[in-house]
Each structure stands twice: as structure tokens, then as C-alpha cells.
Write a structure and sequence with these properties.
Its EC number is 3.4.13.9. Splits dipeptides with a prolyl residue in the C-terminal position. Keywords: Dipeptidase, Hydrolase, Manganese, Metal-binding, Metalloprotease, Protease. Residues 166-424 form the Peptidase M24 domain. It comes from Halomonas cibimaris. It is a single chain. This protein has helices at residues 2-27, 55-58, 146-157, 161-186, 191-202, 266-284, 292-309, 317-322, 325-329, 387-390, 402-408; strands at 31-35, 70-73, 80-84, 106-110, 122-125, 142-143, 214-217, 239-244, 247-248, 251-252, 255-260, 376-379, 382-384, 413-415, 418-422, 427-429. It is an alpha+beta fold. It has two domains: 2-156, Creatine Amidinohydrolase, Chain A, domain 1 (3-Layer(aba) Sandwich), CATH 3.40.350; 161-429, Creatine Amidinohydrolase, CATH 3.90.230. The strands form five sheets. It has a six-stranded mixed beta sheet with strand order 4-3-2-1-5-6. Strands 7-8-11 form a three-stranded antiparallel beta sheet. The longest helix has 26 residues, at 2-27. The chain starts with a helix and ends with a strand.
């Protein structure tokens, strides 16, 4: 795989170089300078949060932890990489890997934070305002010109073969973690035990995860961004929801699985199977020119059918959707764009950068575009039993089977999520 990935990465860099040079010509630029960014300490403290380099910088190189570093692209010369690599006995000095992609850059290792010497019409991309709080001055150039930033965002919407290979490997590594999490759950582990099992099997430290892992037992599975890890296992074991990914060379996977515990009602396991099938049905529809908003609507239509088929709603599936009941059972979107960022950029813009907000009835949807080859998206239908969303329906006369819902409340909810690339003829499920 290494040789193939090396070749794909070199092709990816040359593709980026051609695209950037076209944009420089269109915008009358002599250079584009990408700043990786840097971490700032917590207020009143000397400790720093975990750092992740800016996405446009990582688009060129896998140095997703590089701080105080610059990449300068010009119309004619080899791209110049100024990598901050201080001589330090407190921390390990950053080094470049012995990989072919390094040869695509003119590399300069910089001991102290510094800005590149730039002349002419220059665009500075990244959090350059943060430099005003540091030891170096702002470099020459215009910070984040909106039209160029929009074009660079659009460039990241469609992934190269190298990027898709990275996303596939990120999925493979994450799935090893999910399998270990399931085994820890079967062994009656607490949320912290399950988290540690996931990290160990996916071979990553907690500071490297692409987002804070969601490891929710029982009712915690119904907290969409549950943010804690209980230290002790609960008395009853109804359910486990794990939403967790892996970063590979800067690219993120985002996978969710749900399992029924030994104390869950039989119906809960049946609903997990139904949501799996719903996920697969939606993925089967992914192809060029498919409207992602229509996939959102299809998710709710099929969710209504699931609620009726399993006796949770005593009416028609169409009424279940029209009355807003399905939105109470699943308040989030069907998914989002995926790449260097978990919720990758440009999802709520048209290709010409005009706003493309979500429809009023689905405000949480993060992607509103028609699918085109090279996009990578998540598909993540859910079915939850969240009191604050369901309780307002009790007085509406909605024909919900409340005794059955009450039985399922201790289970929290279900979410199943895969990562899918759009191909020229259909789709490629990277999670399989």
C-alpha cells in the first residue's frame, strides 16, 4: 500500500499545484501563503489545548500537528514549506518523514517562529490574526480574501484518489476500535473502559482523535454529543452507542454503531436492525446528481415506516412525517461532508459559493448540495427516545404508542453511520 499511497500523494500535490496556479492567475496573485496556525494557552494558564493545523495547510501535507509553519505557493517555483522545528529539550523536535512527498517542496526548517518574506500581490490563508498575539509580525499580504477562500473551500469538496485512500484507511483503523468497543461492552465495561478499548484497538492517543469520541451507555445514547465517560458500569445494560473515528494523514473517519445490551427489550434490537437497513437503503441511492436534501427527506419517510411497522406510531407513515413526529425521534441531519475536517467545509454553499442553507423543516442538515463524483459524505440515520423532544407530543393527540416508548426510554437511542465516496457511476462505501 505504501508505494501506491506515495504515488497517489504525489499526484494529489501536483493536482493541487495546478489548481492553485489557476486560481492565482484568475485572482491576479503572485503568491498564496498558507499558515498552519498555532495554539494559544488557556486563559490565565500555561497549558495549551490540543492543536490541529488549518485544513488548507493539511490539504497539501499530512503535517496536521505542525504549528507556526507556512506553505508558500507561487506561479513558477516549487512550493516552499517553512516548517517550525525548534531545537528543544522539553519537547521532541518535529521532523519530516522519509517519504517521497517531501521532495515536492522546497523545505526550510525554522528554529524560531517566523513569517515568510513575501512580495507583490499575496493572499494569506489561515488564522493570521492570531499572529498579532505572538512574537512575529503579520507578513505582507491580504488576509483571507473571501472569493479566494471560497474557491479553496470548493477545491476541498471533491477528494482526489489519494484523499479517498486516506479516508478508507482511517475507516479501517476506526472499525478495529468499534469492534473492541463492542467486546468491552459485552464484558460489562464502563464507558471509560470502552473508550480505552477503542483507543487501544484503533491505535491512537486521545489527543489525536478527529473529534471527542461519544461513548454512551443506556440513556446517554440519547444525548447526541454526549461528552463524558462514566467510571463505573451501570446496574442495567440496555444499550451502547459509540460515535468515534480515526485520523489518517490528516483525514478523518466518522463512524457510529449501536448495540443492544442484555437488559434491553427485544424490540430495541429489532429497531437497531431496522436502522442498519435504513442506512443501507440510503447509501444505495448515492450517485452523481442525487440531491442530498432529498436523502434527508427519504430518511424521514422511511423512519416513519419503521415507527409504524414496529407499533410505535398508530397512523400512516406520511402523517408521522407531516406532523413532525419523525423529527422528534431523529432531530439531526442524515449526514455531512467528510474530509480533513469531520464536518468538512462548503457543505452549505452552492458551487459558486452562494449560500445554500438547509430547508426550514430540517435546520440541522449540514450538506445541501447535489452529489458529484469525488465527494465523501456520511450517512447516519438515527432513532432516539429523548424525553425533552418527545414529551411535547404527549398533549398533541399524536397517535404514539407511549407505553412502548416508555419501555425503550432506558435505551437512549440508535445511530448507525458509514462514510461513502461518490463515484462516477454510483458510490463506494469506505466503511465496509
Amino acid at each position: 500500500m505504501a508505494q501506491t499511497l506515495d504515488r497517489l500523494q504525489q499526484d494529489h500535490i501536483q493536482r493541487l499545484l495546478a489548481a492553485y496556479r489557476t486560481l492565482m492567475q484568475q485572482h491576479g496573485l503572485d503568491a498564496i501563503a498558507l499558515y498552519s496556525g498555532h495554539a494559544l494557552p488557556h486563559y490565565g494558564d500555561d497549558q495549551y489545548p490540543n492543536f490541529k493545523a488549518a485544513g488548507h495547510f493539511v490539504h497539501w501535507s499530512p503535517l496536521f500537528e505542525a504549528q507556526h509553519s507556512w506553505l508558500v505557493i507561487t506561479p513558477n517555483a516549487k512550493p516552499r514549506l517553512l516548517l517550525h522545528a525548534p531545537t528543544d529539550f522539553w519537547h521532541l523536535t518535529p521532523t519530516l518523514p522519509d517519504e517521497p512527498w517531501v521532495g515536492e517542496f522546497d523545505v526550510e526548517l525554522v528554529n524560531e517562529p517566523a513569517t515568510p518574506a513575501l512580495q507583490g500581490n499575496v493572499a494569506l490563508i489561515g488564522d493570521v490574526d492570531a499572529l498579532q498575539q505572538g512574537p512575529v509580525a503579520l507578513p505582507h499580504g491580504e488576509a483571507n480574501p473571501p472569493a479566494l477562500v471560497a474557491a479553496l473551500d470548493e477545491l476541498r469538496m471533491h477528494k482526489s484518489a489519494y484523499e479517498i485512500a486516506c479516508l478508507r484507511e482511517a475507516n479501517r483503523l476506526a472499525m478495529a476500535g468499534h469492534e473492541a468497543a463492542q467486546a468491552a461492552f459485552a464484558g460489562a465495561g464502563a464507558e471509560l473502559d470502552i473508550q480505552l478499548a477503542y483507543l487501544g484497538a484503533s491505535r491512537q492517543r486521545e489527543s489525536h482523535v478527529p473529534y471527542d469520541n461519544i461513548v454512551g451507555l443506556n440513556q446517554h445514547a440519547g444525548v447526541l454529543h454526549y461528552q463524558h465517560y462514566d467510571l463505573h458500569p451501570p446496574a442495567g445494560r440496555y444499550s451502547l452507542l459509540v460515535d468515534a473515528g480515526r485520523r489518517f494523514r490528516g483525514y478523518c473517519s466518522d463512524i457510529t454503531r449501536t448495540w443492544a445490551g442484555p437488559d434491553a427489550p427485544t424490540l430495541f434490537a429489532e429497531l437497531i436492525k431496522a436502522v442498519h437497513e435504513l442506512k443501507d437503503t440510503l447509501i444505495a441511492r448515492i450517485a452523481p446528481d442525487v440531491d442530498y436534501v432529498e436523502l434527508q427527506r427519504a430518511m424521514h419517510r422511511q423512519l416513519g415506516e419503521i415507527l409504524v411497522r414496529h407499533d410505535l406510531y398508530h397512523g400512516s407513515a406520511s402523517d408521522c412525517v407531516a406532523s413532525g413526529v419523525t423529527r422528534a425521534f431523529c432531530p439531526h441531519g442524515v449526514g455531512h461532508s467528510l474530509g480533513i475536517q469531520v464536518h468538512d467545509i462548503a457543505g452549505l454553499k452552492a458551487p459558486d459559493a452562494t449560500p445554500a442553507p438547509p430547508p426550514e423543516e430540517h435546520p440541522a442538515l449540514r450538506l445541501t448540495r447535489k452529489l458529484t463524483p469525488g465527494m465523501v459524505v456520511t450517512i447516519e440515520p438515527g432513532l432516539y427516545f429523548i424525553p425533552m423532544l418527545l414529551d411535547p407530543l404527549r398533549d398533541t393527540g399524536a397517535p404514539i404508542n407511549w407505553p412502548l416508548v416508555e419501555q425503550l426510554m432506558p435505551c437512549g437511542g440508535i445511530r448507525i453511520e458509514d462514510n461513502v465516496a461518490v463515484t462516477d457511476t454510483g458510490h463506494d462505501n469506505l466503511t465496509l
